[in-house]
Recover the amino acids of this structure.
């Protein structure tokens, strides 16, 4: 049986289907709660998957990813507060439509657009990931080094921080990744003679800390925020007229979202912003945007959900996370002893296809959950923060402990949480820190291997076409935007504006 | 360019200095790493990569302090201070028992954030930690550190 079909047969396991249903429901709850998002949800769920087999474990994480990304729209539409940052643009038209008494129509549009976007991106994932992996199969360490460097360069536009602060945060993550025993020479670095640090700083406690505990501390200063709530009529599918108006927008945004998702480190938030802007640019009624335009909701939601499948392409095929949540999933793959990259499609092809099918299944599942359960899920936003966040802390601490059954990991999680809070306080995003921690080890290992391979002549990396291609992309990613802005500024000055 | 306020200047200088001090300390520590003989060093010395990253951080921090000054975005409220105190309390109580300290932390935090309903406090402080303990102990076979309460179960 081909791996493609063998992957499909994993969905005949009723236990897996039940787990996916639970994870989808859990993901919708997490996404609907302001402050919690897919990344935090996946980081908190990761310790629960430790005793599972790799397929259900990673399938659960991807289910949380897909469903939480969609569910951000529920709060965006009903209380004008995006459940996840990826749904921020959904507020712009979803909430005005809900205020007109059409909350059900807005949610219906969001559900259908999200499903189409999600399914489209998983189909692209199924088609492209093996091709990309085959292309990368002949990569040597210099190519991987250049690719990892490119992945890290994309951190400049991830999260909410500025480019320079993102790079500092990412570099600090890479520095943290050097703690422990150097894999190439077995020399101990920054261990301070503590055996707990010989294996380095674990991904899981740091992620739980920076995404979960730091958010808890940040929430303390937002307790007095008041939210307006609209009443929701029965949720209903978009009308034929709605379909006629938005189908092109959904398809366009699905394509945009998938492409943005494929770019390393770019995630659903960037995708939804571009999807929304393009929907407005191509619309025949751009004046309706911001006042409850169905195209605005469709453009944003199709794009942010299609970024989920797109983000899994580089994560599985190259081992470079396509988004912050994909970084947590990558950590999950590594914790379960799997090695993402080209060999995944030769040595573990059945596993890879099982994940693809699971994602497709989850995208169809949340169509049902969204249409029939949105009214109930909207009620989770009524959970008081005084109940929610203490529970998040309990899960964070127990989750951090569970990985290695070590109290040291608990202290790491708390330290990472406090660090993450101060980083947020001063405008640094924590996402680059987490991605830097994951990719830092790979970067150094590949640099070392490249130096051995090229006889310590690092400049020979530039003579290899694929490495050179990625180095050029890295330079463009780092300096393209400032140079472009400078050119625009010069033009404006010349025109005397 | 807008003229930065005194508090922004202070935040900018403070954060930049803290980052640079940490990085210089890391460079200093990295000079104590063992040096490998040329035949064993496998391309780069163990200290090279951390020093390269530290150099990059210092360079970026200087760039940041000039072109992209740090600003304090989150305000520290009374509840934020209470949250930190609750975390300190948790850290102090852990040697006694992990789940006891989790229960106390959760209750204290909920009260500090304004929760007054007794039923909710019982749920947060007792039901949640107990359920999480049994979930991880029975379903995932996770063995927690012994303490006043966990000893009742472990014997």
């Amino acid at each position: 049986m081909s791996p493609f079909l063998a992957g499909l047969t994993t969905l005949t396991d009723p236990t897996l289907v039940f787990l996916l249903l639970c994870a989808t429901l859990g993901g919708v709850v997490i996404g609907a709660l302001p402050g919690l998002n897919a990344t935090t949800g996946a980081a908190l769920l990761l310790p629960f998957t430790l005793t599972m087999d790799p397929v259900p474990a990673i399938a659960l994480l991807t289910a949380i990813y897909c469903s939480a990304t969609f569910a951000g729209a529920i709060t965006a539409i009903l209380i004008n507060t995006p459940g996840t940052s990826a749904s921020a643009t959904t507020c712009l038209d979803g909430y005005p439509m809900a205020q007109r008494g059409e909350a059900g129509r807005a949610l219906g549009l969001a559900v259908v657009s999200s499903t189409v976007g999600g399914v489209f991106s998983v189909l692209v994932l199924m088609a492209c990931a093996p091709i990309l992996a085959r292309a990368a199969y002949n990569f040597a360490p210099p190519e991987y080094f250049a690719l990892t460097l490119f992945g890290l360069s994309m951190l400049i536009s991830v999260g909410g921080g500025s480019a320079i602060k993102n790079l500092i945060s990412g570099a600090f993550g890479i520095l943290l990744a050097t703690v422990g025993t150097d894999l190439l020479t077995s020399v101990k670095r920054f261990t301070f003679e503590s055996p707990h640090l010989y294996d380095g700083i674990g991904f899981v406690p740091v992620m739980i800390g920076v995404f979960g505990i730091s958010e808890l501390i940040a929430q303390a200063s937002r307790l007095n925020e008041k939210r307006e709530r609209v009443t929701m009529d029965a949720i209903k599918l978009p009308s034929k007229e709605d379909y006629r108006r938005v189908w092109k927008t959904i398809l366009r945004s699905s394509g945009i979202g998938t492409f943005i998702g494929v770019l390393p480190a770019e995630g659903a938030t960037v995708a939804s912003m571009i999807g929304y802007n393009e929907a407005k640019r191509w619309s025949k009624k751009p004046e309706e945007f911001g006042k409850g335009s169905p195209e605005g909701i469709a453009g944003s939601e199709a794009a942010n959900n299609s970024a989920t499948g797109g983000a899994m392409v580089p994560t599985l095929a190259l081992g470079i996370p396509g988004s912050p949540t994909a970084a947590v999933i990558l950590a999950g793959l590594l914790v379960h002893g799997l090695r993402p990259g080209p060999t995944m499609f030769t040595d573990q092809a059945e596993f890879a296809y099982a994940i693809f099918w699971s994602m497709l299944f989850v995208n169809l599942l949340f169509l049902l959950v969204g249409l029939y359960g949105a009214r109930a899920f909207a009620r989770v936003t009524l959970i008081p923060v005084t109940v929610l966040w203490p529970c998040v802390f309990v899960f964070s601490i127990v989750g951090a402990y569970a990985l290695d059954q070590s109290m040291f990991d608990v202290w790491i999680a708390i330290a990472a949480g406090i660090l993450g809070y101060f980083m947020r306080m001063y405008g640094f995003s924590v996402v680059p820190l987490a991605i830097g921690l994951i990719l830092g080890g790979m970067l150094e290992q590949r640099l070392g291997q490249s130096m051995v391979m090229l006889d310590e002549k690092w400049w020979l990396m530039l003579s290899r076409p694929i490495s050179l291609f990625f180095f050029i992309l890295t330079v463009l990613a780092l300096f393209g935007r400032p140079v472009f802005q400078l050119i625009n500024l010069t033009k404006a000055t010349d025109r005397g504006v | 360019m807008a003229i930065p306020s005194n508090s922004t200047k202070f935040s900018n200088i403070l954060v930049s200095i803290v980052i640079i001090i940490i990085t210089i300390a890391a460079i200093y520590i990295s000079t104590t790493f063992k040096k490998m003989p040329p035949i064993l060093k496998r391309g780069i010395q163990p200290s090279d990569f951390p020093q390269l990253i530290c150099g990059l951080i210092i360079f970026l921090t200087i760039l940041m302090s000039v072109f992209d000054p740090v600003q304090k975005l989150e305000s520290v409220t009374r509840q934020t201070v209470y949250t930190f105190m609750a975390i300190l309390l948790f850290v102090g109580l852990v040697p006694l028992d992990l789940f006891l300290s989790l229960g106390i932390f959760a209750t204290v935090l909920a009260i500090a954030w304004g929760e007054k309903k007794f039923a909710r406090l019982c749920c947060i402080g007792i039901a949640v930690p107990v359920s999480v303990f049994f979930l991880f102990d029975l379903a995932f076979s996770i063995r927690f550190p012994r303490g006043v309460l966990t000893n009742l179960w472990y014997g």
About this structure: Chain A has 18 helices and two strands.
